[in-house]
Amino acid sequence: MKKTKLNCQEAKQIDLVNYLARQGLKPSRISGNIYWYLSPFNAEKSASFKIDRKRNTWYDFTDGNGGTLIDFAIRFHDCTIAEFLNLVSDPATVVPGRTPQERKQIESVPNNPIVVTKVTPLLYDVLVAYVKSRGIPFHLADEYCKQVHFKIGDKPYFAVGFKNNSGGYEVRNALFKGSSSPKDITNIDNGSNTLVVFEGFFDFLTYRAIMDERAAKHNFLILNSTTLLSKAEEIIKSHKHVHCYLDNNKTGRNAAKQIRLWNKSARNFNRLYKNYADLNEMRCAFGNVRRKGNARSL
Hints:
The chain is α+β, with helices and mostly antiparallel strands. The chain contains twelve helices and 15 strands. The strands form three sheets. A five-stranded antiparallel beta sheet has the order 1-2-3-4-5, with helices on one face. A five-stranded antiparallel beta sheet has the order 6-7-8-9-10. Strands 11-13-12-14-15 form a five-stranded mixed beta sheet. Helix 11 links the parallel strand 14 and strand 15. The longest helix is centred in the last third of the chain and has 13 residues. The radius of gyration is 21 Å and the shape is globular. It starts with 7 loop residues before the first helix and ends in a 12-residue tail after the last helix. 31% of the residues are buried.
């Protein structure tokens, strides 16, 4: 007999780890309740797709998307919510829920979030070399970034840190990409009526590296994830001119479209790096040569 169709709330309770296992996706590593996978949506060599099993949510650091099982499934299967609910309600494809043993284990394991222990100016040679490998002059990294020491569980780490409006940090080094809480946007107000928008801070630093000093006087908005775009609505609406340098993918283009709905002056400049994932990737491909003439288009 056909099972009663699940509703959205019931579908969200399906265990994400079990669901991905049914799709043939296995974690690359597990840290407490955090399961890391190679992104199902983007080609990569280092796992940056994360499932928080306690919260039963996912986040893909390659493009800044995340959410519940439903958000994952409609993207993974390219289907509507109704089609997915039909799929998981079919007795032939139903995914088992968590067993009592799994629930007990999940509740007993800490999430091991990033805990910042110390913040200093950029000092370590390995971090200086890292920002230079991304095409960023040291003086710019030194102006906008810090050296952030943090722990995940009992293990200490350090990375380049970029502060957000709420005091959390985006942390990056050659082997790691993450965020400390609280997660937020970063708004740099220079008193300009022009706002320049980026998804990540390395794109912002790239812009500062390749543009002239007139561009340095603009206001800047670094989303730190397109999932935080709604936090920036009032900032975007308050400017006379908005220039977008978002990632060259569907997520970036959708974010640019939303920004234009909020501010009709918004222009998308991703054509300047149309053959690259983002502004920093183009910078790395061409080296540290200043690209003349870009400032004239701003």
